[in-house]
Amino acid sequence: MAQRVLKIGRKLVGSGQPVFIIAEAGVNHNGRLDLALRLVDAAAGAGADAIKFQTFKAEGVVTKGGELVAYQKNNIRKFKNQLDMLRSLEIKESFYKSIIKRCEKKNIIFLSTPHGGFQSVDFLEKFKVSAFKFGSGDITNLPLLAYAAHFKKPIILGTGMSNMQEVRDAIRCIKKAGNDKIVVLHCTTSYPCPHDEVNLAAMRSMAKELDVLIGYSDHTHGIQAAVMATTLGASVIEKHLTLDKNFSGPDHKASVEPKEFKEMVEWLRNIPIVLGSSSKKPTEQELLHRHLVRKSLVADKDIMKGEIFTENNLAIKRPGTGMMPERYFSIIGKRAKRNISKDTILRQNDY
Q1: Domain spans of the chain, in order of start
Q2: Cα–Cα distance for residue pair 291/139, rounded to 1 Å
Q3: How far apart, in Å, do the first and last CA atoms of the chain sit?
Q4: What is residue 239's predicted lDDT score, i.e. its pLDDT?
Q5: Confidence (pTM)
Q6: In the chain, which stretches have pLDDT less than 50?
């Protein structure tokens, strides 16, 4: 059995724990240190548990012939291919110490996707990252997953574009390397993702069929899907964060700005409170006013001693301090043992 609770940095993730929220900075820094630091500040200010960047050298990700994906063409038009685009989005190695130091200052966990393969894993390991997060494009990159798994750190794995068997194969590969600290994120690799392609029901299937923790990486507009995924049991939520949706770059339009991210965090933190107890019973507040809201059997007109109770002289009204309405049918046809004034609540010994 996989571990039901993992530790990422100082945070516990999994069964019975608060949802672990990752602000996906990704490449929304546009290759600039100042924007990367501002993203850290924004993520921390919004209440995220972690902020995640991407670590790569463009040449380690794609060949010269790699074409832009459709959403990249739509969101950023000045590059002819993926290689040129990715070169502009690299984080310089000299930036990392400043970014990590800012994360420590802001009390937020630094994460980064080793997007550049083995070299990126080794580079991040130098900084003692607390987990490795792999994007959906590496779901079938079993050599890379096995390599990272040997470091015995939690593996967070995106599953966009994949089927269940591919996910199983990736999990088996990681476990075979001796690592069962796995979180699988359901997602749809579309930026932005339309609501009719979210398929959160697939996340529930993964939770049922896979022996790992399950989460959701959200690429939709707004925060509704992330809230729903958490309600369905996601242990981890990842959401793209940008300082401005109008910035030039492949992912800004599918991201949320700090104010909306903070709103999402507030919703997610409240979900366990709203879900509350699985036991169906009155709350303490309900018990305080239940007798005022429920109803009793009441004389609908003056009833004389010896008179028969009928549908015409009985009513059901508040408060619920007398004979319960369920006695209505058993009292009809019985005779009153006393004079009862109109609007008087009936007592047990009135018939």
Answers
A1: 5-275, 281-351
A2: 58
A3: 64
A4: 98
A5: 0.88
A6: none
Q: How many CA atoms lie within 13 A of 298 on its CB side?
A: 15
pLDDT given for residue 278 in this prediction = 92
Strands 314-317 vs 182-186: parallel, antiparallel or unpaired:
unpaired
Provide the CATH number for the domain formed by 5-275 in this structure.
3.20.20.70
Query: CA distances (Å), 170 to each of 83, 116, 286, in order?
Result: 27, 18, 49
User: What are the tens digits of pLDDT across the range 114-128?
Assistant: 999 999 999 999 999
Cβ neighbours around 177 below 10 Å, total: 18
Give the span between the Cα atoms of 130 and 132, in whole angstroms. Answer: 7
pLDDT on residue 86: 78
Locate 31 and state its tokens. 């290759």
In the three-class reduction of DSSP (H, G, I as helix; E, B as strand; rest coil), residue 331 is classed as: helix
232, two tokens: 């369905």
Give me the numbers of helices (H) and strands (E) for the chain, helices first please.
Answer: 12, 12
Q: Are the C-beta atoms of residues 164 and 193 closer than 8 Å to each other?
A: no
Q: What sections of the chain are H helices per DSSP?
A: 33-46, 70-75, 82-87, 96-105, 118-126, 142-149, 164-176, 200-209, 224-231, 258-275, 284-293, 328-331
Q: Which amino acid is at 322?
A: G
Of the candidates 53, 62, 51, the one whose C-alpha atom is nearest the C-alpha of residue 114 is 53
- Residue 314, beta-bridge partner list: 299
**DSSP annotation string for 139-184:** TT-HHHHHHHHTTT--EEEE-TT--HHHHHHHHHHHHHTT---EEE
CATH number of 281-351: 3.90.1210.10
Per-residue pLDDT reduced to its tens digit, 142-179: 999 999 999 999 999 999 999 999 999 999 999 999 99
Instruction: Please state, in angstroms and rounded to a whole number, the distance separating the CA atoms of residues 187 and 185.
Output: 6
> What does the pLDDT read at residue 90?
87
Number of residues that make up the chain: 351
Residue 101 neighbours by CB under 8 Å, 6+ apart: none
